[in-house]
Fold these 2 entries.
Entry 1:
Amino acid sequence: MFFPLLVLRNAFRHKLRTTLTIVGIVVAIAAFGMLRTIVDAWYAGANASSSARLVTRSSVSLVFALPLNYAQKIRQVDGVTGVGWANWFGGVYVNERNFFAQFAISESYLDLYPEFVLSDDQRRAFLADRVGAIAGRKLADKYGWKVGDQIPLRGTIYPGTWTFNLRGIYDGAEEGTDTSTFFFHFAYLNESIKKQYPGRGDQAGVFIESLGNADDAAAVSSAIDATFRNSLAETLTETEKAFQLGFVAMSEAILLAIQAVSYVVIVIIMAVMANTMAMTARERYGEYATFKALGFSNGFVGMLIFAESLGISLLGGLLGAAATFPLADVFASTVGSILAGFKVSRETVMLQLLAALVIGVVAAAIPAWRAARVRIVDGLRAIG
Amino acid sequence: MAIPVNYIARNLVARRLTTALTAGGMALVVYVFATVLMLSAGLEQTLVATGQDDNVVVIRRGSQTEVQSGIARMQAAVVESLPEIALAADGRPLISKEPVVLINLPKRSSGKPANVVIRGVTQAGLALRPQVKLVEGRMFRPGTAEVIAGRSIADGFQGAGLGETLRFASRDWTIVGVFDAGHTAFDSEIWGDAEQMLQAFRRTGYSSLLFRLNDPAQFDAVKLFIESDPRLTLEAKREKRFYAEQSEALSKFISYLGTSISIIFSIGAVIGAAITMYASVASRTGEIGTLRALGFSRAAILVAFLGEALLLGLIGGIVGLAAASVMQALSISTTNFQTFAEIAFSFTLTPGIVIASLIFALAMGFVGGFLPAARAARMKIVDALRAA
């Protein structure tokens, strides 16, 4: 009982200093957690994607579309159970700041994505309306859309202003499902293009295939690509996950920088904490010498400092980890739909506590070593 | 009367470990702050430097980038006949009608694919961009499957180096030259013959037009003509403005994220400074009493301790900036999500960033030092002397 009480009394001898240190650690640990969560959110799209779906795109790059008749040929490939297609629309809603993904989709597309939950009524209403559209729950909430609203989008790839009737709002079947995408009919887009630009129609941006067995992914991908080899539009087929990770990889330099910076904050707070412990120990050399004079061992004196340092850093770490959750909620609601699946992962919390532990140990190392080695005579002579 | 600066500085030297730890924490914060600003400045400079003042870019109305744009040959011919376009030495108008597409290439470092801009250019296109200089190999010959690659692409992507071949649009293209575009966006592009590109990618129209004005002041008249002609669904922008707009989103993202990170981090550093200064005040209570008894005013004490904190901040700021300036040797390549294409840019230290970083460091010292300094100034002489 004596040891913990002593550590506790020691820790709060300088209330202001200890409080400031804890506040610093809370801020640092929370910031560390937030940065990691931001990086995680980047990968959320890839993590939520199914490995039983393939994406086929032009082998040159996504900018090039594929002929629509590829759908028939892809359907004949062994192992493919369903085919859908989609075009990136890239429209602007009111102004450029309101960015969200918009796809023109084939009717079969929704069958490939069972994780988009849409009531039967709304689904029927969407399919019946040529200029109908559906939006994810998160997106609809962000702009306050209700079923029946008219949504105008200014096309950047397809010129003109396009107005859609919102016929349904879908939810995600799982927690990680992204519900911030806007879908409308490919047929509507295709007919409008054919009217405006004869010759530009009947082109799909990507084909999506569902597989009977996810283990066939590699074989089916190469079979699809082989079908179109040496044609005018060669294809590249990969799993949806690899496709999504390809997007993440494009911003990799920035992600790496954020990750690096998240560790810098730990180093900064380590310096602050080490400073606190160094000052604390220096002021108490006299006391440590007294302990030793009374017969306590060097190890005991060292442990006193370690325990105090760890106590402060772990308390800060726990508070910081706890503060990350409300912070992440606030961040997610301000940034909105850009980052889907903004959730603090268990791994992040573990890393936060580990970081707090490391801060406590590193900060105490030198002061504890010095205090343990202090000679009784010098220590008693020392003035704080 | 003021307390000598010497006294202030010596106090920092007397507690070396504490000073080093506190200044080190601040240095790290300043380092992060400065590098982020350098990154965003580097990106802006790269794209702003890309444009020339008297050049005009024409793209389809509403399309924000060249890749999304499309211009029919008939429309291009209308623009080409504008009298305001400058003439080259051979008497032909200085206008380049260019197809611009993206292709997927794997990076040399990671093997991961990224989008690279392929631009079809003409003789006029080269004349319009005097900053582009061939540094290795030779120019592509018109009418052949030869291309030249920008410095960053040649270094960063597989198959894009001199003498290597790239396969796209069902053809093999040989890289016959490497060009340096003087740290502009063109460094991240591959150029070939415009007519060859149109055929290879089966395009019937161009993506963008670039021309030079006889007189930069005619821009408004040309813009009005192009945007009001019902045959043209196009818009005209000054080249400088056009490229500056393409850096806006990414550079804002970097600087917003960076500034908010720096501000959060600075809380930690400010707390470190406050702890140090409180301890500094506490251990010198007797000294403060003596100084007051000698006749130094409360204001002088306040100034002395604030000065100490500011000095601490300044040391941190200078160390942080020095570390950040080393970053200038590095360049970074990432996808600009506005154009969806790879762009390489380097960390650029501007005088503005130096001043901003030093002010930031001094502000951290000031905020951290103010309360401790105020406590020191408020002490009563008798109490302070008795405490010693």
Entry 2:
Amino acid sequence: MTPKTEAELADAIASAKAPLRIIGGGTRPIGNPVAGEVLSTSALSGIELYEPGALTIVAKAGTPLAEIETALDKENQRLAFEPMDHRGLLGTTGAPTIGGVVAANVSGPRRIQAGACRDHMLGVRFVDGTGAILKNGGRVMKNVTGYDLVKLLTGSYGTLGVLSEVSLKVLPKTDTQATLMIHGLDFAHAVKAMSAALGSPYEVSAAAHMPDMGHGAVTMLRIEGFEKSVAYRAEQLMNELAPFGDITVESDPAKSGKIWTASRDVEGFQKADGDIWRISVKPTDGATLAAKLGTDKLFMDWGGGLIWAVMPKGTDLRAKMNGTQGHATLIRADEATRAKLDVFHPELEPIAKISAGLRAKFDPSGILNPGLMA
Amino acid sequence: MEMPAPNATILSKKAKIVERLQSVLPKDAVIHDEAETRAYECDGLSAYKCPPLAAVLPSSTEEVSAILKICHEEGVPVVPRGSGTSLAGGALPTADSIILGVARLNDVIETDYENRVIKVQTGRTNLSVTGAVEEEDFFYAPDPSSQLACAIAGNIAMNSGGAHCLKYGVTTNNLLGVTLVMMDGTITELGGAHLDAGGLDLLGLICGSEGQLGVVTEATLRILRKPEGARPVLMGFDDNEVAGACVADIIKAGVLPVAIEFMDRPCIEATEAFAKAGYPMCEALLIVEVEGSDAEIDEQLGLIMQIARKHNPVELRESKSADESAKIWLGRKSAFGAMGQINDYMCLDGTIPVSSLPFVLKRISEMSKDYGLDVANVFHAGDGNMHPLILFDANKPGDLELCEALGADILRLCVEVGGCLTGEHGVGIEKRDLMVDQFAADDLENQMAVKDVFDPTWLLNPAKVFPLEASEARRAMALAAE
């Protein structure tokens, strides 16, 4: 089913007798396997409002992300949360949609400075499991009117409702960027260096670490802004981080940009064999976790707080986390492994009860991506 | 503003309820004497007062859990209270409710500079969170005007903002984890020191839920390194519309100031008379602040002033020193005090799309004439969060009602132009009955269904946020169960 209007979407859900598998562009097949008829939002497409002076964009959920990025680019603006493109890592094709980005709360390296997708969400329109058309939030930057169901819907993977329209905060693009690279650090020192950089006043907008996989370990720090300011902050940071080791600077903005697209899309692991896990932890736990997991195939983003790990097929990585606070998501694995291990981290009992209770309210007959998250 | 009639059964068993609360709390933590409960009869919306049945002041998460468990068993409504600075009546009690004050929960549990987080008990005041990390040059970003007094608990309940949220976001963007006690006494954790708590974003849902879903006793907050410096530029315009256009141009130019504050003529006149900050007498005044090193600030302010000059400002004053900065901020920071000198006032906080600013200001000034009440505007222009201050005389019969009616009309106007009723203060009781202007019945039903999941018997802060009519069936169910 590919409804063309919000009303058709509501009808399709209201008359559904069996589970539906909700997709946008189909480029992010993340979650426990769902059996059901495909309901695609791809025909609900188009930018409805874009006010650069108000830093706001409103678009139908199926709008291709590329269309939004092109429109923003013309006004020298962007989605500051830098959404990852999953196609390379998951081996999918097609056009990512803005609804898909929101449904999976997809962010990128700038998340540590600018916030996640959920932090830029201003409003949603969606259809719940009964076919009711609902809205929450709006199109203004500050809004505390009623419960924040915008955040609840963001990252709910279509299990609470099917998004029909989203409004987002956008931000100005920066003039230029540079990347500092510290060479040869192990995980523990890399996290220390990233913490020092992120705890400095120099507004680091991304901090990642790639261990030695044949080309030497490199810890990367991005600075963005006006040209003189970027040069000044890069110099200050180099001085401050000098005790950590050799530092080089990539000040060509195009080359620096490529470094971060590669980090954002986890290019280093796209061809790796095995399951791909995404782990969110306290940055300083990232360093010790590396030892617990017993693999060097780790890539750290968000100053050490986000870890991408390649594990042998079918390995239960969570069992190895051994009390580390945080959560691990099985992003890429075959269906059997995903069904066996659970894609999302098991929740504390009271939280699991609330999540189940919310799903029962939003989708009483359990037809929206049932079982995808839990 | 109407409040539900107290439940006679609860009133009649006050002694038993107090006795049970005393059995789990130290003696001085249960306040039940009628003279003493008066201290909790209102919050910052002081036009409405009602002493609670009793007030309790727990000192630990476990005590909070024990209190809620008892109230759950006895069917007693609970009104959580931070510091009681809510301007929306979020902490207004009913005669049959228990005030649960978190004032004694004010410890810092852990400061962690490497991971850039602080874990505090939620009775701690906003400013003293920054106070705890200041010596390492860190700060907690959300800065509501009441930051000297307001508690983190209330900040989380209302998802408070502040003048600097254009750059740093509001509470929800700076909150990483909470310890949550549910109405039945269950203690649980959401998130932690890691980013993006797993599963459904319940942390995002809790923040801004006005104490209706659970009581937050501990919070993990993001702290940031202080910028090297900050300096504002002050600009005056002889037309609101031009000032609005200037704001849009600054934003479009790619500079992201930390704050863009706007004051209109009535506000400028009042603050000038009160604080003598040396502001120009004009139609609109903007204060735009940027951060960074001295050279970075000079560059950004240079660009901003270049944009401003295109709009023919009547005054353009760049701060070159801390003294000059303080002077520019002096009037803005004393705006509310200045208003208080003139008269009683009601502070609204509807948000509008920035593009509607000139139209909305024009309509407000027309409405102000129609109602015969003065309105001054001071607000965060970068994000469209208005703060119309309606002046009235509380001693004059009918003036409060007139003021409320004008306030309601202004908020409806905000919704009409694509904005919302409240940007950072919360709904509370103040805007409860206007929710139907922003939301359809289905939308409100959907939100109330969320409360059903967390608090099935509707005991937590029950008479807030939703129009009494809309929540009546659910609140009645709670009473019947009791």
